[in-house]
Design goal:
- The chain is mainly alpha-helical.
- The protein has one domain.
- Helix 3 packs antiparallel against helix 4.
- The radius of gyration is 17 Å and the shape is globular.
């Protein structure tokens, strides 16, 4: 059954990655006329890392032998939210004179709203893998998720450009620490 769902996951998350990379490519190509914003670029990298991490984490579902329609819709819904999150960073048609800073602040409520929703959906998805004995839930997860959610809530409400700059870097550092610590734990366990 997972092979069937895996195709859907690959399409939706692949579209997310394509949208992010295409948007980043536009920033490069339009550097003479558009106004890039470093915070926006860091968030693009952050969400690209997140989508790739979610795609990697979906692999653990291959061990589940019996699927319910609820599980199918939960995974498909989670991936759909990931696409919506990715799509908040770049417009479908990027004008050559786009002010990326203005665009980021115009869409930040949607961006952080979808990010909060994605991480809230990540919690039951990750715990379900743990309860189904598909994957151990890392101890660091209990610290990582609240940290990311706090960053997102602050980002949702803050209009300060300085705060937004700190938040995108804090998100990246928290994620790098989480991945590094969970990788070290796996190495130490073997």
């Amino acid at each position: 059954m997972f092979e069937y769902l895996g195709v859907l996951i690959a399409v939706i998350l692949g579209l997310s990655i394509t949208h992010l990379l295409r948007g980043l490519s536009k920033v490069i190509h339009l550097h003479g006329t558009a106004k890039p914003y470093w915070v926006h670029i860091v968030w693009t990298v952050n969400i690209l890392i997140y989508v790739l991490g979610v795609w990697w984490g979906m692999f653990w579902w291959t061990k589940l032998e019996t699927w319910s329609i609820e599980e199918f819709f939960a995974i498909a819904g989670y991936c759909s939210v990931m696409f919506m999150l990715s799509s908040m960073l770049y417009p479908p048609d990027c004008p050559s004179d786009l002010d990326f800073e203005g665009y980021f602040f115009k869409n930040k409520s949607w961006f952080f709203g979808f990010q909060i929703l994605a991480f809230l959906l990540d919690i039951p998805e990750t715990l379900a893998k743990g309860m189904g004995h598909l994957r151990d839930v890392p101890l660091q997860y209990a610290f990582y998720i609240p940290t990311i959610l706090i960053i997102c809530v602050i980002g949702l409400y803050s209009k300060s450009r300085r705060v937004q700059g700190v938040l995108c870097i804090a998100w990246l550092l928290a994620t790098v620490c989480y991945v590094t610590l969970t990788s070290i734990d796996k190495i130490a366990a073997h």
